[in-house]
Amino acid sequence: MRALCALLLVGGISGCGSEEAAPTSDSQGAGVQDAANNDGALLDAALGDGEALDSGNADVATQDAGAPDTSVGLVCPGAPGCACEDESDCDDGNPCTIDGGCDSGACQGKALKSCDDGVGCTEDTCDAADGCMHTARKGPCQDGNPCTVGDACDGISCQAGKPAACNDGNGCTDDACTPGIGCTFSHNESVCVDENACAKPGVCSFSQCVPGAIKPCSDKNACTYSVCDPNTGCAHVNLPSEVTCTGGEIRDGRCYMAFKESKGIDWLAARASCNAWGGELATIHSKQANTVVRKQANAVCGAKTDVWIGLNDRMREYFRRWGDNSAVDYQNWGKSEPNNAGNEDVVSMRADGMWNDRSDDPKKGKVPCWVCSRRLPVPCTAGGKGCQSGATCAAGACDGANAKPASCDDANECTADSCNKTTCGNVALPKGATCTGGACAGAVCTAPEAAPNTAPTSCKALLAADSAATSGVRWLQPAGLAAPVSAHCDQDHGGGWTLVMKTAGKNKDFAFEGKNWAAKPKGPTLSPGPQVGEAVLPTYWTVPVTEVRLVMLHKKVTRAVVLPAKGASLHAVIQSKKGLETDIGLPQWKQLLTDASLQRSCHAEGISAGQLSKIARVRIGILGNNENDCVTSDSWLGMGANDLICGGKKAVFSGNVACYGADKGNRTTAAATWVYVR
Predict the structure, then answer these.
(1) If phi over 0 gives left and psi between -120 and 50 gives alpha, with beta otherwise, what is residue 244?
(2) Model-level pTM greater than 0.90?
(3) Are residues 545 and 563 in contact, defined by beta-carbon separation less than 8 angstroms?
(4) Which end of the chain is more exposed for a tag (fewer CB within 10 A), N or C?
(5) Rounded to 5 degrees, what are φ and ψ at 510?
(6) What is the tens place of the pLDDT at every residue in 585-636?
(7) Domain-by-domain residue ranges, the chain?
């Protein structure tokens, strides 16, 4: 009865397990009756054409094992849902299937049999008669070893190919192949060469070749400049003997001129054009020169175009030099520049005058405009002879044809002048030696003890009245003074210069907010002469000014700059709320001191410079900053600076103080300083 009930249940007929069928609705009863009568009597089909069931045996005695049971839509034996008593009843005889087990009198689901033999070089199939079959194939395969390539089937096995070529072309990595991993490239610290003719062999670091030191590239010839190209090496370019600047503009000792090519030109081609012209792509050492370059470009190429300039780091990454190999002491980078995106080694100037690094690859962009610069004639010493003037460079050598013996006369009555082989010498006369209007003391002609009844208003007025007037301490009576005062007159260097103040460099009274800039001098000045000392003369308040001459002494070398400054007096100019901006240029300021150092941006200059700066300020001088503004400057060069700088107080108020990325490193240099006006 169990097998029959199971078959009846599979066929959708209920009633097994009870003598009487459960009552049903008409529709349910009709459904049961239809199922029972489908294609003949289900019971008859189950009994195999009327054969009686053996008591306790659920198997159908005479049913064909391979015939489908159409009464219930199954293919028995073995199909899921077929009646069964044990596992053998569910075997469908097909070697390509996995038979389901027998559970609760019915066969469970089946699955296709996998014939994968795990061998990559066989085609795996299943035949209903023969079962799994494995046919050898040819072609590529994987032997499971990442250190071989080109593995191929040979018969039914995968044969290893050639060893993997683990070579990344980088001499700064050790190349190997590790079984189970594959190619590995570990960085080494070998000596390397990056094919740069301007640098010594480098050292590998983190898989990259870091170039060595820049190779020396100088012929020590004052009439050439030395340049290095990473592809061709060092070269020495002759300075021109004559330089005309028709159509260009002169600034910082160079002639600047713009050129254009409407189709565009790459950086190297632009540089070659400048070389043919007798110069280099523009070298820029000051804000004023930067303005000239943009002005030239605007006039020739238009105000909206980029322009090539000479700055580059082709010799060594991040080691930037100008095209004439001069150092970088002024920068004007645009926001987020330089970014070296895609190995950008050269520089262009944008329409706003700011700089942008770019690629020198001709395929990666061209610019329709470029500005060249070339130096003006350079004085030199011919044949090793000193104490001469008039010699200039020609064809890379010093031409002494027009040279004349130089006068070593310093126009100082209190010095003995001579030429010592190559340089002039000026030695102070003994104390007490006579000079015009007085006696010598330490190379200074002192004024007579008694003041005259009348005196000129300034040293310039003195020179106008007496063209033979010499340098020395003289009596002067500027307008507004009731009596003459003494002050040093410098009748050299163009003549007519009146001393107004001087400092040794560390007197806080000469700091930016020091009292000497505002205090009115009273009584006689104890040190009116040119010797090193501290003094504020009445001439600071009274002598009208059109020019200011700032003189500095450092390491026994005296140098000066001249600034335009129109006013009733230097005091009046100093106390102006806006100050006075000048534009003599960074190179002029930096020559004041040996090895002067400044940060690379800002470079506001003049009198009471740095009104916008919240840190460094200076009364007469120039500021630098490592940001592209003048608000947070941390470097200055000149006289009358504040001391709160570089993270602390610096007791230097005249000279040079610099930190935080200054071009020649940190500096705290005091210098003796004199201020003259005329």
Answers:
(1) beta
(2) no
(3) no
(4) N
(5) -100, 10
(6) 888 899 999 889 999 888 899 998 777 788 899 999 999 998 878 888 999 9
(7) 2-112, 243-375, 447-677
